[in-house]
Amino acid sequence: MSTPSPFLHSILILIVSFLCKASAIQQNGARYLGNFWSSSRTLSVRASKYQYETKYFQQKLDHFSFADLPSFSQRYLINTQHWEGPSRSAPIFLYCGNEGDIEWFADNTGFVWEIAPRFGAMVIFPEHRYYGESMPYGSKEEAYKNATTLSYLTAEQALADYAVLITELKRNLSAQACPVVLFGGSYGGMLAAWMRLKYPHISIGALASSAPVLQFEDLVPPETFYSIVSNGFRRESMSCFNTIKESWDVINKVGQIDGGLAQLTKTFHICRELESIDNLSNWLESAYSYLAMVNYPYPTDFLMPLPGSPIKEVCRKIDSLPDGASVLQRIFEGISIYYNYTGKVDCFNLNDDPHGMSGWDWQACTEMIMPMASNMTTSMFPEFYYDPKSNEEQCLKDFHVKPRPTWITTEFGGHAFKSALKAFGSNIIFSNGLLDPWSGGSVLGDVSETIVALTTKKGAHHLDLRAATAEDPDWLLDQRSSEIKLIRGWLDEHYDEKKAVSAYR
Amino acid sequence: MSTPSPFLHSILILIVSFLCKASAIQQNGARYLGNFWSSSRTLSVRASKYQYETKYFQQKLDHFSFADLPSFSQRYLINTQHWEGPSRSAPIFLYCGNEGDIEWFADNTGFVWEIAPRFGAMVIFPEHRYYGESMPYGSKEEAYKNATTLSYLTAEQALADYAVLITELKRNLSAQACPVVLFGGSYGGMLAAWMRLKYPHISIGALASSAPVLQFEDLVPPETFYSIVSNGFRRESMSCFNTIKESWDVINKVGQIDGGLAQLTKTFHICRELESIDNLSNWLESAYSYLAMVNYPYPTDFLMPLPGSPIKEVCRKIDSLPDGASVLQRIFEGISIYYNYTGKVDCFNLNDDPHGMSGWDWQACTEMIMPMASNMTTSMFPEFYYDPKSNEEQCLKDFHVKPRPTWITTEFGGHAFKSALKAFGSNIIFSNGLLDPWSGGSVLGDVSETIVALTTKKGAHHLDLRAATAEDPDWLLDQRSSEIKLIRGWLDEHYDEKKAVSAYR
Q1: Torsion-angle region of residue A106: left (phi > 0), alpha (psi -120 to 50) or beta?
Q2: Which UniProt keywords apply (chains A, B) (predicted)?
Q3: What is the pLDDT of residue A356?
Q4: How far is B134 from chain A (nearest CA, A)?
Q5: Tell me, what's the ipTM?
Q6: CB contact under 8 A, B68 and A151
């Protein structure tokens, strides 16, 4: 981040604004997934670490109707350098692109690139529709114009895009016999798992990392996410947890007095005077939540430049101020670890565009309804309940669209999801780090012999998909090694079976 | 069919016109499925044999996009008289409505009604969108106006309709724990099987009767359908087969001479003078194909009033004319068994509306692309090849829509369909009668321990789903008895497992 170019700088402002959504503390947790990835764009403006060709494929805008709609060009990144080809039925590793520019996913999913050569595998990273360059209607401006143009931005359409792309690609390469292994992190992990359920003929297995497939309706308690975030702080220090828990009341009280907003603006080094307490609360709450997601064991610059185990650092700061330091002073010092680890930011820009048409915000207002709440017993956040009505009102206001809160569970299985997976699925790894607040909405226990959970106590949001580093702890090496073994097992079984099937047919 | 009302009469004309499509011998066999059912409407205009309530459910027009479209009212027939209710987790039998008025399916699917009481089961027959009363845009006229209004008439949307309906219905009845068993015949059977693959959490098993799920792309040879039709005649009599095989040339020769069309018109008792040989050939070819489908062992009035084993009767007629009778005379006498078994028709009306907007014709021009051909070695029909280009041209002309011939295989599995089913599915019965020309595109061997094929040598198109009659042969009783046992097995296993799952969770 040294001497950022003007271009980088403008992106940074954009990102900070992404992080500070003006909605009250996020009741529909889905928004975190999207903003997480959108945020990750800041720090990756550089030449890709990995080699690939960039190609484009014409996709139908609506796979499930025959409306006369313009097709669009889906971008995909492909590397066949290590692929052993159709003659050896060599595997194809496909990363299910999620809610962002596919180049950033490619850059941040080193695991796939690193293991492909040892499998003789082709690597493909198709981009999710409505993100990056894969824009219907020719441009982002047109694609994001209104609810009508955005209406084909759904998970089912994205799954169908992947199914069509891989089928055509295999046909063109005479690679029909080449098994496909899916990868995905976060929402991409959900897509990978759902692909296994909905398109079992397309792939032989999926690594779904940090995929909160159960974070819908009432499948898990709505308090789960914020409880895990809170636990991350409590684990480090009870006094840190308590300071944060107290801070909301203090902010409220200060904010309500005459000149209080000015005082808060000053205390927190906000560039422009705060217009409401909510803006500040959200800014803080976002930081705590993202800290829990990127609570990686070694220094990263994924979302923000951060030390290893950043929550420990935040708490150390909060706790280490001398007696007599105010709650707000402690919070400011703590949060600065997140927002200003490099120490180069003079003041924080909370400018926000609450009605900005971000793709994931659309998804969070249509299908990805992930109820969230915070209760006083387990959470350090203010108490709040999930209110579907107000969520619906907000979505109608922002996008003129009505959420379908029961659609994902109808389409992919609700309470019956695990038993459907058990009876119908095979070869899925649900990998999770238990520090990650999304882990509570994922699958944490083995579902069957071949649908397995790999959890690490100290892992955070899809850490396993990241490139190997010299600082990787043993438990992370073990997790990745288990993943490689499982994938190899799927492939071995596939090759064995294929011989059998060939003989049988 | 005695003294038909004017209403009945007008439907009869409509039906005869359905039977005689003006396209050359049907290259896209899908059209037969739809017309078969459309045709069945003639003879069922009567009070239903079965008791049910008629209800309506508001459905989204496009489940897979958020376009601002009007919802539509889906009709469903429901009987809860024998249902033992949620407290006993009593089953729900759901027939996947296909391409026609749901009341006719309910009337012609006696098997489901007859077995429901012994299972304490609720019976539901939801209607397929765009058929019967389940019309988007308020009326058939509006729904069938153009390619845009028709564009949501797809199998995937219909499957989603069933998934949403059953999920909501169960929620409203607090019947979430009640297992759903699916039934379907022909295209409805395909939907039932696909539901098992795509919505495994929605049902516990499916009886897919005469479901040609493999009649796509190159999964089975395109000659299959017409070869089976031809075999039906060859089996009865080689001379009958040969007479039919010769007849096409004779018709061509006669048709091409001066006054030839008039001569053919007279020979075949056509009301209005033939405009082309094709019209006559199609009329004959349709009769042979439908005869093979309804080659039931006892007299029926399903499609037309017919004797038992009607192909035997047709061939007996063709063969029994005295030596010296012309080929065309033989053909006319034979075909009259089909078109005029009651002897009440003075002349045949071949009027056709080749561009009539029938729902199934739309489906056959969009997703349901079932390639068909006829070769001289196995077929009694003229030789022809499947020509995707001309099919596409016809669809562009008729509906301004371009077929997607590889979509169904991408969505539901192509060559990998059986292995996907084996790995991912369970509890499907593919029942077929081998006299049925659709049997060649269905699943005729067990796929796994729980995905089984029940075939009868002498059965025709979804005979097993029809109501029991006194004339049912033993092999039919056996087939139905096996089906009942298998369904009971699914339910028993489900109840056993549920206890285990409840204890485990």
Answers
A1: alpha
A2: Carboxypeptidase, Glycoprotein, Hydrolase, Protease, Signal
A3: 45
A4: 17
A5: 0.87
A6: yes
